Amino acid sequence: MTSLRLVFMGTPDFAVPSLAALIEAGHSVACVYSQPPRPAGRGQQVQKSPVHRFAEERGIPVRTPKSLRNAEAQAEFAALDADAAVVAAYGLILPQPVLDAPRLGCVNVHGSLLPRWRGAAPIQRSILAGDAETGITIMRMDVGLDTGAMLSKESLAITPATTASSLHDDLAALGARMIAPALAGLAAGTLVAVPQPEEGVTYAAKLTREDGRLDWTREAAFVERQVRALTPWPGCWFDVEGERGTERIKVLAAELVDDASGAPGTLLDDRLTVACADGAVRLTRVQRPGKAPVDGAAFLRGFALPVGGPVSGSVGASCNAGN
């Protein structure tokens, strides 16, 4: 395999395996670009991104520009004289001068089977939608939102046990396995980029905290997928009226319950089974503000809700997570 001079552009944990794979393959990573350090965690201390830390540990220079749209940043990028740039969940738009600078262009590791789920949250959206599979697409980037021609694709099954965390890790590992062979084929001219089909385009809109609101008027299957898709971020929740007023209860795990039904939002038993529009879900792991996570039965022992009554004070709030 020919050693290439690369720039790597990525920020979160998802991108680290791809960077590691490129180093292991013998490529020269001239520079890493990552999002600037930001406050994080309970203490809101400024922290470098996972990619930033990984690169520094290996002695690779790191740049963290807030934008690549100014001429100075673009000139600095071009001066690296890279054969190619590899991009994985970087978080900044690459303007045309940046896309044109590397000899072989900019190559993206994207966490879906394009053209399905272009955009910011393909992992979560694929689970929410009930897709049977997803995967990784390696594509040559253009100025559009994940619209570039495809170099390679590989799929992964989405099962009833798939969570956002497990799918994230599986896709990150798959992308790491695919990126070096894709670069080798691109450099050798043996891998031809194929334009994305015009049919089947969907967009994975960025997630917000409101996407995690559980809506009991949805089907139980959707609510259960919502918990798997949106844990840990942005997290799923419902509001309940207690002695100290309204409390926001986090739902960390849930399961479908067969042969259970009732008016949406009704508590059906002492194990925190809640009726939905079609069927019911059991909330198997929940957390009150400032408390440790507990199972549904333990939650009800400490937060009395009558079986047959409503679980939350505002049943039927809208939820746009499935769009």
What this model shows, in words?
This protein is of the alpha/beta class and 323 residues long. 25% of the residues lie in helices and 25% in strands. It is built from eight helices and 15 strands. The protein has helices at residues 16-24, 50-57, 71-78, 96-100, 122-128, 164-188, 220-230, 296-302; strands at 5-10, 28-33, 38-40, 45-47, 62-63, 84-88, 106-110, 118-119, 133-140, 150-157, 203-204, 236-242, 245-257, 273-275, 280-287. The strands form four sheets. A seven-stranded mixed sheet has the order 5-2-1-6-7-9-10. It has a four-stranded antiparallel sheet with strand order 12-13-15-14. The longest helix is centred in the middle third of the chain and has 25 residues, at 164-188. The model is unreliable at 313-323 (pLDDT under 50).
